[in-house]
Amino acid sequence: MMISTALKSAVLTRKCSELAPSLVRLLHATRPLAIKEGDSLPNAELVEGGPDGKVKVGDLFGKKRGVLLGVPGAFTPGCSQKHLPTYVKQYDQLKKKGVEVIACVSVNDPFVMSAWAKDQKTEGKVHMLADPQGNFIKALKMDKDLSAVLGNVRSKRFSMLLEDGKVKKLYVEPDGTGVSCTVADTILEELGKK
What we know:
Layout: H1 2-30, E1 45-48, E2 54-56, H2 57-61, E3 65-71, H3 77-89, H4 91-96, E4 101-106, H5 110-120, E5 127-130, H6 135-140, E6 143-145, H7 147-150, E7 153-155, E8 158-163, E9 166-172, H8 184-192
Parallel strand pairs: 3-4, 4-5
Antiparallel strand pairs: 1-2, 1-5, 3-8, 6-7, 8-9
């Protein structure tokens, strides 16, 4: 009886140890990490202005100092009243601190982003980039399922300070949608540390 139990235990231990590498690979494959400070931005193609306005993220930011903000949706209250307006209002201060490019990305179509740009008076200040299928946002691992409210997967609310195409500082709202640490003041404060 004892031999049988010991034998069963040995067989089970061996099977578990054989499965362990597969299990580790599976866990790593299903838990991808979000973009982090020091990472390069993926050179994804987004859309600005209309369906023909293809923009490569790498070309837009290149070797410049820039700010990229991600929002859950155009015309939503937090995005339209609290988040994006801080970058429009503080555009001149950001430029004085050496920011060359400011862009806002959302999982929306280019027509909605274009209308929102007019509403928010971003022309000449903030590039309004559409990510219609959310491919760029998913590549950053900044996607959030907001289908119950906005109908599909959207972007978490974030802002990042970029230097030479790499993330220097990354700010993500703790709940993914609120507005506190992702406003222009946070970026200006970081730039003031130099």
